[in-house]
């Protein structure tokens, strides 16, 4: 959300399609990951998320707060995923159903997806070379492979990673508890 939050909300309430597109772009990937955790299927998750955005759009005038919109989208996705699972898997054990439906599970999933959203947004703001190194590392490439793809030395790749880590650490200071997990994955 690059514009003034108040103006952004006003535009959403007025039905501005550009503002809706910004909202969609802001949450679509995180909501798809969230839904995919429940469903295990990317296409089904995307369908659920698209339906959630349609449900939001039908009620867009009712929301006067950005966080209410975010909560609404996550709750609708969660609810629709659980309904889909219940309809698909009548044989789902009751204990597993309760665990998936618990508030603690939901809260943990939302926090994790929010952290991923912030993490990937922070990566987008890195300089191109650092962003490329981090993206290649996230794809599982080792430093030597990254260096070869980018036409730079392994030392340069290491330096880019180190500087990117510093910048991402600053960007994600509110998510410090997950940052080490992300970078453990990147530097192994």
Automatic annotation (TrEMBL):
It comes from the Bacteria. NCBIfam families: sigma70-ECF. SMART domains: HTH_LUXR (SM00421). This is Sigma-70 family RNA polymerase sigma factor. The keyword Transcription applies. It comes from Butyricimonas virosa. GO terms for molecular function: DNA binding; sigma factor activity. InterPro entries: RNA_pol_sigma-70-like, RNA_pol_sigma-70_dom, RNA_pol_sigma70_r2, RNA_pol_sigma70_r4_t2, RNA_pol_sigma_r2, RNA_pol_sigma_r3/r4-like, Tscrpt_reg_LuxR_C, WH-like_DNA-bd_sf. One of its GO terms (biological process) is DNA-templated transcription initiation. Keywords: Sigma factor, Transcription, Transcription regulation. It holds the Pfam family Sigma70_r4_2. Belongs to the sigma-70 factor family. ECF subfamily. Residues 123-182 form the HTH luxR-type domain.
């Amino acid at each position: 959300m690059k514009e003034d939050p108040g103006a952004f909300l006003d535009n959403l309430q007025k039905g501005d399609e550009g503002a809706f597109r910004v909202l969609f772009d802001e949450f679509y990937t995180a909501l798809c990951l969230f839904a995919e955790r429940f469903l295990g299927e990317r296409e089904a998750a995307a369908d659920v998320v698209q339906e959630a955005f349609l449900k939001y759009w039908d009620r867009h005038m009712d929301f006067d707060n950005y966080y209410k919109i975010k909560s609404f989208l996550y709750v609708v996705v969660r609810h629709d995923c659980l309904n889909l699972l219940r309809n698909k898997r009548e044989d789902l054990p009751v204990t597993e159903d309760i665990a998936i439906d618990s508030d603690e599970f939901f809260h943990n999933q939302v926090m994790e997806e929010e952290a991923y959203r912030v993490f990937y947004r922070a990566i987008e703001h890195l300089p191109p070379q650092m962003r490329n190194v981090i993206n290649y590392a996230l794809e599982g490439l080792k430093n030597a492979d990254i260096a070869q793809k980018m036409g730079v030395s392994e030392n340069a790749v290491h330096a880019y990673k180190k500087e990117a880590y510093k910048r991402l650490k600053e960007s994600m200071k509110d998510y410090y508890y997950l940052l080490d997990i992300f970078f453990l994955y990147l530097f192994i």
